User: What shape does this take?
Amino acid sequence: MVKITLGGKSMLHASPSSFVILPALAKIVCEPGWKWQKREKPLQNYDLFYVWSGEGTVVRGGVPYQVGKGSCFLFRPGDHTSATHNPQKPLVLTYIHFDVIGEVKDIPLPYRELTETVEFEHMLARYVRLFLVKTFAAEEEGQLILKQLMIHLLREDQVMPVERNASNQLTEVIHEVANYVSQHPGVSHRVEDLAARAGLSPRYFSIKFKELIGSSVQSYVIRARIERAQHLLLYAGMNVTEVADALGYRDIFFFSRQFKQHTGKSPSEIR
Assistant: This one.
């Protein structure tokens, strides 16, 4: 049994080899009369418990949770649990029991509702499939998947539940625009055009871009250009004038000045 304390390593930094795979794992469709009785003894290990579909009630430490698709628990050693479900809409569950060698802290929250489930469900399915047949190196891959699952939950826990849906969509849109800028560094990107691409007002787009990407739109556009310029100077055999022209600079002196501001060197020093 793993003891959870304030000391020890973070779950995020636990090595995959420190995850101990236990034989209790499955994806099941619960029978109409199924229920998970509360036991006298608490859980002895971790139990990742995920609902694929159905309706039910899960109780952890005396607190009831109404569950459905995307409901995800990480029960911990010492937890008292029980559950029932609607026989008309039986629960389809994956449960994975495991341990972690040594003391751990910064454990994922006991409960969350996942809205983006495809990637998580793929990892769960892969994990269970590994042990249905005697797959070569199943334990080693299983440890890697367990670590990925924990990272996924820790990442989810960073986002406030109320913000999650809108936040995921907005993050995706902003990152798509940032990728577009990186892939087209020679285009003269205006904030208005990029905001329109994201379907947002220029002001709101600028605020969210800086919040999510970590720099202003203008700084990001310039950095993308300068990084591309470095690549062209170093690997494409182009001279300074050709690079400036390719990236939409009309003034070679302005290009050289901007380049030096960002890299600490003039373009001619790079070649």
Summary: Residues 138-157 form the longest helix (20 residues). The radius of gyration is 26 Å. The chain has a mean pLDDT of 89. The CA atoms of residues 47 and 97 lie 4 Å apart.
